[in-house]
TrEMBL record:
It is found in: Cell membrane. It is a multi-pass membrane protein. This is Probable peptidoglycan glycosyltransferase FtsW. The keyword tRNA processing does not apply. Pathway: Cell wall biogenesis; peptidoglycan biosynthesis. It catalyses: [GlcNAc-(1->4)-Mur2Ac(oyl-L-Ala-gamma-D-Glu-L-Lys-D-Ala-D-Ala)](n)-di-trans,octa-cis-undecaprenyl diphosphate + beta-D-GlcNAc-(1->4)-Mur2Ac(oyl-L-Ala-gamma-D-Glu-L-Lys-D-Ala-D-Ala)-di-trans,octa-cis-undecaprenyl diphosphate = [GlcNAc-(1->4)-Mur2Ac(oyl-L-Ala-gamma-D-Glu-L-Lys-D-Ala-D-Ala)](n+1)-di-trans,octa-cis-undecaprenyl diphosphate + di-trans,octa-cis-undecaprenyl diphosphate + H(+).
């Protein structure tokens, strides 16, 4: 057992990390790996692969994802900011490249093939976007003469344009919710609230008018007409499961569900393990969000408060959208269930966000007295704050 009096990096990490949050993230990853055995074999066989093709891929990405999360949890807030800026710039450049040299799937050009693996840059954009926006809003709070709010707004516009160009309207909405949530915590006035609310409604109406795939999905959701096979099968799988499920490997509807291992893994969980198990999954996501917001409420550093709140809001809203689609409460949207759905880009990117949360919620007795900021009056340019 590690002693509290030891001050090595491992001991310091062990005693300062939020072990409840860490356990919640690991439990979700374990559930995702377990569900890959239930959800993916039927899809793999239908595509002509070995039955455990996607299970093997899930395991391959699981280990480095966990390593990334643990490694990032050792970082200081300053290092988190620097890493987020690097990831953000790399993601934006990769998203631009994907529009020209990326692979197309179902009419969307979001993926770049690297070393035989398909990488989705927009997934890595999300955690970096939340951290960088939090930093910009925090600097404006500390020094009003710094146009951090303006820079954060420009960053959102650039990100949204690239996402819509792919097109990926769902991720655009998710980024907008995260950006608005951080802005609200930074002291948004009621005029801004009304203005941004109106802009959001106008954006949705514009997307419905000019983006055919958005129009089709919303119309199918409202009228129930058209190709709703996946959504109807997902709902039927949930109904078949009942409270306690049919048992591991006994699912029937999942064999006909095309994306049972990714976008509709929640329905597979309901069919084989029951509604009570799904409520347990929802409770874990709720715990992560509430635990993160509790940390943010107690945090005195603006950057850490905004970043933690934005990151857990992102994880929570993505899970709400995924589960809402499975329950036919929202229009169909190809969005994974964080840490559970198959997909290497999604898993690694979510673990990056989880690592950021764990790093920023660590208990540091001296962090109230030492809050490093990039901009600080009276400090020579290029000299970092201590």
């Amino acid at each position: 057992m590690v002693s509290r009096v030891q001050r090595g990096p491992i001991a310091d990490w062990f005693w300062t990390i939020d072990r409840w949050l860490l356990a919640a993230f690991i439990v979700l990853m374990g559930i995702g790996f377990m569900l890959s055995f239930a959800a993916s074999p039927a899809v793999a066989e239908r595509l002509g692969y070995d039955s455990f093709h996607f299970v093997t891929r899930h395991a391959i990405f699981l280990v480095p994802s966990l390593a990334v999360m643990i490694s990032l949890s050792f970082c200081s807030p300053r290092m988190i900011r620097r890493l987020a800026v690097i990831i953000l710039i790399g993601s934006l450049l990769a998203m631009v490249a994907a529009l020209f040299i990326g692979t197309s799937n179902n009419g969307s050009r979001r993926w770049i093939v690297l070393a035989g693996f398909s990488v989705q840059p927009s997934e890595f954009l999300k955690p970096a976007f939340a951290v960088v926006c939090a930093w910009l809003f925090a600097e404006h709070q500390r020094y009003p003469e710094i146009p951090g709010n303006l820079f954060a707004g420009m960053l959102f516009i650039v990100s949204a344009v690239l996402l819509i160009a792919q097109p990926d309207f769902g991720q655009t909405v998710l980024l907008g919710i995260v950006w608005g949530g951080i802005f609200f915590m930074a002291g948004m006035s009621w005029i801004w609230i009304a203005g941004l609310g109106g802009a959001g409604v106008a954006g949705i109406l514009a997307a419905y008018t000019w983006l055919p795939h958005v129009t089709s999905r919303i119309d199918r959701f409202l009228t129930g007409e058209g190709d709703n096979l996946q959504v109807e099968l997902a709902a039927k799988a949930i109904q078949n499961g009942g409270l306690f499920g049919l048992g591991p490997g006994e699912g029937i509807v999942k064999r006909r569900l095309p994306d049972s291992h990714t976008d509709f893994v929640f329905s597979v969980a309901a069919e084989e393990f029951g509604i009570l198990f799904c409520m347990f999954i929802v409770a874990i996501f709720a715990f992560i969000v509430l635990r993160g917001l509790s940390h943010a409420y107690r945090e005195r550093d603006d950057f850490a408060r905004f970043a933690v709140a934005g990151l857990v809001l992102q994880i929570g809203m993505q899970s709400v959208i995924n589960i809402g689609v499975a329950l036919q409460l929202m229009p169909a949207k190809g969005m994974t269930l964080p840490l559970i759905s198959a997909g290497g880009s999604s898993m690694i990117a979510t673990c990056i966000g989880a690592g950021f949360v764990l790093a920023l919620t660590r208990h540091r007795p001296d962090k109230r007295a030492r809050q490093d900021h990039f901009f600080e009056p009276g400090r020579p340019r290029g000299v970092p704050a201590e």
